[in-house]
Amino acid sequence: MKDNLSDIENYIIRRVREERECKNFTQEKLSNCLGKNSSYIAHIEAPSKSSKYNINILNKIAKILKCSPKDFWPEKPI
C-alpha cells in the first residue's frame, strides 16, 4: 500500500474502520451521520488515497459510534 500517510494516520484509519464495522455501520451510513457526502468514509479508507481524519471529525465519529476518541489511538507512540 503506497500512500502519503504516516504510520499513525494509517493506524487511526484502520481503528476507525474496525470500530465502524464492529458497530455495524457501513461507510455510507457513517458518512451520512457526519453530514458528509455518502462516499466520504470510503474515500478515507481507500488504500491508495492520501485523505485523512482531523481531530474534530474523529470526535464526531466517536460520538456517533458511542466510543471514546482514545479508542482510535495506539497506547504507545508509533
Explain what this protein looks like in three dimensions:
This protein has 78 residues and is mostly helical. It has one domain (7-66): Orthogonal Bundle (434 Repressor (Amino-terminal Domain)), CATH 1.10.260. The chain is built from four helices and no strands. It has helices at residues 7-22, 27-33, 40-45, 55-65. The longest helix has 16 residues, at 7-22. The protein is globular, with a radius of gyration of 12 Å. The chain starts with 6 loop residues before the first helix and ends in a 13-residue tail after the last helix. 10% of the residues are buried. The model has no long low-confidence stretch (mean pLDDT 94).
Distance between the termini: 18 Å
CATH class term: Mainly Alpha
Mean pLDDT: 94
Gyration radius, to the nearest Å? 12 Å
Number of domains: 1
Low-confidence stretches: none
The proportion of residues in beta strands is under 5%
Task: Give the class from helix and strand content and strand pairing.
Answer: mainly alpha
In this structure, how is the largest beta sheet organized? none
The CATH topology comes to 434 Repressor (Amino-terminal Domain)
Number of helices: 4
Spell out the helices and strands N to C.
HHHH
The tally of beta strands, per DSSP, is 0
CATH superfamily: lambda repressor-like DNA-binding domains
Q: What is the overall silhouette?
A: globular
Helicity level: 40-55%
CATH-scheme architecture:
Orthogonal Bundle
